[in-house]
Amino acid sequence: MQACTRFLNHAARAWPRSGLIRRLSTTAALREKDADKYYVTQPIFYVNSVPHIGHFYTVVLADVIKRYASMQGKSTKMSAGTDEHGLKIQQAAERANRDTLSFCTQYSNRFRDLQAAANADSPDFIRTTDPQHRLAVEHFWNLLVDRGYIYKGEHSGWYSVSDEAFYTELQVEERVDPATDKCGMFAIESGQPVEWVSEVNYKFKLSEFRDRLIEWIEGGQDVVYPEIRRNEVLSWLRAGIDDLSVSRPRSRLKWGIPVPGDDEHTIYVWVDALVNYATVDGYPWTDSKPSFFPPDVQVVGKDIVRFHAVYWPALLMAAGLALPKRILAHAHWTMGSQKMSKSKGNVADPFEDIERYGLDTLRYFMIRNGGISDDGDYATDEVLVRHRKDLAGQLANLAARCSSERLGVNIDGFAVLGRKLQSDIDSRDATLHDMLVELADKAKPLFDKGEFGRGLGLAFDVLAEANRHITENEPWTLVKSSDPEEQTRLQVVLFYSLEAVRLASLLLLPTIPEKANRLLDHIAVDKSERLWANAKFGAGWQTPGPKKLLPGVATLFPKLV
Predict the structure, then answer these.
(1) Which domains does the chain carry?
(2) DSSP letters of 26-90?
(3) Residue ranges of the Methionyl/Leucyl tRNA synthetase domain (predicted)?
């Protein structure tokens, strides 16, 4: 730690505040990044406990967005990490009689493990205790001071230790705590207890950005999504916002980054934490432009939308930095329609459930059943139903039915047949044909919003129709005929079935990458043909060379108990 401190002090002295700050704020930070760069952020998770299924959902949703962007030819970056400063961590480490940094490291490692376990491993994993992050936060703070947006003053308000936030009189209520049966004051938004605090600290001129924030949200399509969260944020802003307390007395909060030039104060944990999205892209930038900043999508839970849709863009405006393009604030998970709680025993361990159900099955369930606007309910039975009915029953079963060797699929002729069927449509195929043609166009606007569950619902509607189509057209009967017309019809029926599998698998690629890729291998789709551009009718099996269906597709999704 001493070596780390010496490094930080040396680096801080190496960056004079004047000159460099002004140059950065008007050059590199405001330049447009390359159009092919796509940046997705996860919230950095607080290290006061182990990961739960809600964390897993956030990780997977961000990863699905990143993979979807990659399918569209984008060069992608996804940030992840842990938020390790603040009073909650300081107190938790004290209760555990642990050194604070080693306490943080223990839990941070579990969140890093979660990224790998979820197949969402990110090389851009940041800890707010990292030396480079401290340098970025100090630079950002000095920039706000340099631009006149931070001042020192007295602050009084209702403070929640759990939320690390002050609340106004309108944001708290008096009620009985069900855990203690005692009357107290609680934050309406989070339900956490608050206490009245008066202290001298540094404040950020948040109120000056009210109108600009409203204009930003109203002027951009789905800048804050879903609409229910957008309306919440706008209602907060229209009701008026006060300046934000952005430091805490070091006598009360030692575990954090000291205010530059004033060791009696610690930088507010949320200012510290939010800067991470710039740190992982190399902030503070020199004369070169940022590589991926600003974020294209910032995935957060609905409980932290205020920090990301009000505080964060206002801080960026003050610093002269580009704003995120979208804040996607998803809903939470319940169990038995009740909020998950360790005391109630209704929590789910993502590591255990990955082992129990298989990673891609769990990823699929979370994305298909998870809520963007409304909370999703986590139930073992529903995970099993999605596996049995959707993945095994609809997807793998259809692939197995039409790829049987005895049916004599002419996969090498599918490229030509697909082009022919663009216009030569038999009335018996019309319903399925239209659904296949429209699938990607209907799913894309949903995927673009982050509504992957709804988009995948369309894919499984197509698979249901394809299963009906193959049953009705009986290829196992057609194969027995020596009539050339019947043999031609056989190949058409098999093409429509495998085309449904191909398109559905492409739409599933961001969500179940391992299983979807294996399924595409089974049906002889070349790896070069697994982009979004290929997710249209007749755009498959174009790569020259012999193609062969692989056996064993029915075993991709084995029975779960």
Answers:
(1) 2-330 (3.40.50.620), 355-555 (1.10.730.10)
(2) HTGGGSPPPTTEEEEEPPPEETTS---HHHHHHHHHHHHHHHHHHHTT-EEEEEEEEE--SHHHH
(3) 38-402
